[in-house]
Amino acid sequence: MSDLDRVFEQAKTVTDRFRLSGRSALVVGGTKGLGQAMALGLAAAGADVCVSGRGPAGLTETAEAINRLGRKGTSFAADVTEEKKVEELMSFMEETYGGIDILVNSQGIVHLQSSTEFDTAAWQRVMDVNLKSIMLTCKYAGRYMLEKKRGKIINISSVRGFQGRAEDLAYAPSKGAVNQITRSLAIEWGPKGVNVNGIAPVFTLTAINKKILSNPEMKNWVLGRIPMKRLGELEDIMGPVIFLASDASDFVNGHILPVDGGWLGA
């Protein structure tokens, strides 16, 4: 077979590589905003999806929406900053889906305050939710994936993982650390069949950004900073997460993909 013939045969099935049929996914923080959008996007691409959050708000509704897409949707309430709860969550995935093929970490909180007055308890809470929980879910999901020698992990970072910001001693540093956890795991687990990547969104129309974007001056500044001159929409995150969860990204590892309308390039 010639090189052209080989590529021709591969091209005929290239779109199939984006399908997630037969895969089980866990979306942590999947009850609202970006996490909910990614959970539904993964289901639309063929995956069975469990959504997890501290609950109960959004858990049942999101799982039911996944079922309406024709996939097996379930939910599990858990505070993933607690190691015991993470172990229970992974046991649920094993019992319900036979394991876990895709892990999406979308949990996150923000606290902004003058640095000289920054509340230490708030700092610790941000670190626990944004960083410790990702370490724990990767640790336990990784055990299942490494045993199967296959898996996709997508950690949701932020453009702030690359940039500092005034009055931000917690969120931006936590996202920078998420980037480094992602890269470190990619180096360790990539040779064993597990891809670990990240997505770094810019300001998106979600509840976490409503307070900031409700200020006309701040909203205009954000829009002026984004070359595409619009805010991120929930649908903008679906394609990237499907790509990173699918076979189409098998040779993508340790990458943090900005979904930012050109913010970081400006």
UniProtKB/TrEMBL annotation:
Entry annotated with the keyword Oxidoreductase: yes
Sorted UniProt keywords: Oxidoreductase
GO MF terms held by the record: oxidoreductase activity, acting on the CH-OH group of donors, NAD or NADP as acceptor
A Pfam family that the UniProt record links to this protein: adh_short_C2
Record carries keyword Oxidoreductase: yes
Domain of life assignment: Bacteria
Homology family: Belongs to the short-chain dehydrogenases/reductases (SDR) family.
Name this protein carries in UniProt: 2-deoxy-D-gluconate 3-dehydrogenase
Protein species of origin: Marispirochaeta aestuarii
Taxonomic classification: Bacteria, Pseudomonadati, Spirochaetota, Spirochaetia, Spirochaetales
